[in-house]
Amino acid sequence: MHFSPQEEDAIWELVELVKSRKSEPTDNEVDSLPRREIKAADIALFGRMLADSPEYNIEAAAQVAHAITTHRVAVEDDFFSAVDDLNQADERGSGHLGVHEFGSGLFYLYICINREELKKNLQGDIELAKKSIEAFVEAAATVSPSGKQNSFAALSRASYVLAELGDDQPRSLSNAFFKPIEHTCDNTESESIRKLDSHRTALDRVYGSSTKAKVLNVMDPNSNTLKDIIDFSSGDE
After folding, report:
1. Which residues pair with 164 in a beta bridge?
2. Which of 49, 72, 191, 225 gets the most CB atoms within 10 Å of its CB?
3. How many domains does the chain have?
């Protein structure tokens, strides 16, 4: 279970009470630990589900799609061996042989944040909701998954960020890559951005749009900065 800071404080208070009276907590004391009204950014963004106590469930304010590559990816094999550092001179060879599979690609990632739901989950704390969005947007653009980083050092930052703000029904632009970018193109990155923009323009032409937008493009010397995107997304403009 994910606990909010308020719930953690209640847990430690109960721990101290149990220690002082030298008895186990009662069922009522344990059942009273979860709170309906909490202020925890991670729970407010990604939700919480308790199957046996649905009254403490929190509806997630953020939706994060699986990242997909904009082109076809070939899975490669990385052969490795492991040798015991304490081997004696007459003990040759490795203690383990294995293969890591890996791929390299340009990924499209879609994230949607319901700002009203976020404020509701944070009990109307507008300032905390703003800080939560700022931290989330910065992490999405700059932080890479930590798995296998010591082996591959796959530390990348977003090349292109499109931030949209409005009351329209949210929509992903992943359909832009139904047909993958061909490896024969001059620049996979530029072609991916072109197809993304083209698909967005086509959707807006057919369905209309009242959203505001701001773009970060590392290949454009006149592009907005990450701070501009953060301020825009958090409503600080």
Report:
1. 213
2. 191
3. 1
